[in-house]
Amino acid sequence: MAQREKLLEIKNLKQYFNEGKVNEVKAVDNVSFEIFKGEVMGLVGESGCGKSTTGRTIIRLYDATGGEVLYDGVNVHGKKSKKQLKDFNRKMQMIFQDPYASLNPRLKIADVIAEGIDIHGLAKTKQERMEQVYELLETVGLNREHANRYPHEFSGGQRQRIGIARALAVQPEFIIADEPISALDVSIQAQVVNLMK
What we know:
By secondary structure, this protein is an alpha+beta fold. The chain has helices at residues 51-58, 82-91, 109-119, 126-139, 156-168, 186-196; strands at residues 6-17, 25-36, 66-71, 74-75, 92-95, 174-177. Helix 3 runs parallel beside helix 5, helix 4 packs across helix 5 and helix 5 packs parallel to helix 6 (186-196). The two termini are 25 Å apart.
């Protein structure tokens, strides 16, 4: 049997808020696990137990209070150069729980999806950029005509598809999905799960 390749290793991860104060909250306390390439892992627990905080800490939206997050053997926390951060941000993406709050309402959908393409220089021309946007829209079951619309013109299910397209735009190796279907209508949930598969 071929040896599985370890992609992510979480060692004794801690995320405390208001550390050392009376109202200190130990949102994540000493969590360890591993994820291998090609693997899907679910983090299960009651509301408020620290699932979202774990995901956000892994991806550096929060600075870890303690422990290590090793991605391809490299600790993603601590001091990093701009280039190191940029490379890491391309490899790992997040799809958020609330499709209403996670899209910038002032940007057209094309610009929402292409944000990562622009940051990482993944398109050489405006035409190539738009072709990538159109392909991503079609990948998530939307039309290229949607590119020039704004987030408020879409339903919750459609917005979550846009969020998935945005995450896929930089061809990440690893995606953190923070309850991406919980805010959606039950009839849409299966579609989004199938899409993610």
